[in-house]
Amino acid sequence: MDLYQQLLQLDQQYIWHPYSALGSDLPVFPVVSAHGVRLKLADDRELIDGMSSWWCAIHGYNHPQMNKAIENQLQNMSHVMFGGLTHPPAVELAKTLVDITPSTLNSVFFSDSGSVAVEVAMKMAIQYWQDKQADSSSQKQQFLTVRIGYHGDTFGAMSVSDPETGMHSLFNQSLAQQLFIDSPTSAFNESCNETDLNNLRSALEANHTQLAAFIIEPVVQGAGGMRFYSADYLNKARELCDEFNVLLIFDEIATGFGRTGKLFTCEFTQIQPDIMCVGKALTGGYLTLAATLTNDRIAHTISNGYPGLFMHGPTFMANPLACSVANESIKILLNSDWQSKIKQIEGWLNHSLEKCSKLTNVKDVRVLGAIAVVECKTAVDMKTIPTAFVNKGVWIRPFGKLIYLMPPYIIKQEEIEILCNAIFEVLED
């Protein structure tokens, strides 16, 4: 038995994959190395990666500068607890994040995944209101959000993800009950329409005394449906949250660090959130790390309230290796002409996917920055379509009715064309 088959056999016997069953017949493909935008399988086939490993490997794989950052930090220490200690990589990264995110976000809490960053944001909001109202029995314990959203797989994050059409309906009876309104229908680059505005106003007006915050993925709804909506909706949301005394949380985990053509999608708006979550591309896909940023009002209220500290503390918080490679990833991004590159990728994606809109089984094709979505009329067959893409030399991982691309920023035009042609050919077949 060759290495490829050995890996598959042992994998099927022992390993759970995301949203899969032990021993599942859904296909998996053994990867033995990765370089640039290409993944090498155990049978020596190479695949062009259209997913950036779930949107995080923005500089591609095996980047020499990022490898060096990891190696250098490894000579000093791979990890040290963050309770009562600090270290240069964490201090540098915190300052950088404060410098490049909205100007009012002046403090940083590190965590080890995007889901946990959302949990931290929710806990911050609840603790803020308890301290603000000087009452540990504060009624402002719930969250408002929109349907077709996704914020992660831990319990708090699941509770603010779509409870019906999302991935977590199985747990509805165990989750904290939150408030949901219809997802905004106002299109990207359009003003917020009256229906969207009235839905949000009505929910806040009726429930503001029990709401800690309104949490939303700004401009791009990611894993819930890959939808792009009006930034003006967020401008109006800020006004209404202020009017009804509710905090505003932006989940920028999927969109941060240039993916949409802005460094952060909140830059499409004229406003700033009270709390913001970042992750995924933070380390360029090297190690798991996330951060929750907040403003002085929230940070000082929590720090000066009861019990005089924020009640959270992950074991691997601010891991030095992860902070070091995050610092290097941000330097690589900011020292490049990334805006022009994202605009270029957007143009390539629009041009190469145009023919998909003519297919009878395609409902919509949409592109924003380095995000491209082909929405089908029916759900794709996950038992066959990944293999069809691999046979064409590309790695594309659809979900539901959506076939989408979020390639590394270093991708070339001919590689974009190969990815897009594969989508067209597989859907045509």
Task: Write a structural description.
The protein has 429 residues and is of the alpha/beta class. The model has no long low-confidence stretch (mean pLDDT 96). It has a seven-stranded mixed beta sheet, sandwiched between helices. It has a four-stranded mixed beta sheet with strand order 1-2-3-15. It contains 13 helices and 16 strands. The protein has two domains: 3-62 and 337-428, Aspartate Aminotransferase, domain 1 (Alpha-Beta Complex), CATH 3.90.1150; 77-334, Aspartate Aminotransferase, domain 2 (3-Layer(aba) Sandwich), CATH 3.40.640.10. Helix 6 (155-159) links the parallel strand 5 (142-146) and strand 6.
Under the CATH scheme, the architecture of the largest domain is: 3-Layer(aba) Sandwich
What is the straight-line distance between the termini?
Answer: 33 Å
User: Which outline best applies?
Assistant: globular
Give the strand content.
15-25%
What sequence of helices (H) and strands (E) makes up the elements? HEEEHHHEHEHEHEEEHEEEHHHEEHEEH
User: How many strand elements?
Assistant: 16
Spatial strand sequence of the major β-sheet: 4-12-11-10-7-5-6
- Mean of residue pLDDT values: 96
CATH superfamily placement of the largest domain: Type I PLP-dependent aspartate aminotransferase-like (Major domain)
Sheet/helix structural class: alpha/beta
- Uncertain runs are none
When the domains are counted, the total is 2
Q: Quickly name the level 1 CATH class of the largest domain.
A: Alpha Beta
Indicate the percent of residues in helices: 25-40%
Characterize the biggest β-sheet. Answer: 7 strands, mixed
For this structure, the CATH topology of the largest domain is Aspartate Aminotransferase, domain 2
Number of helices: 13
Give the radius of gyration.
22 Å
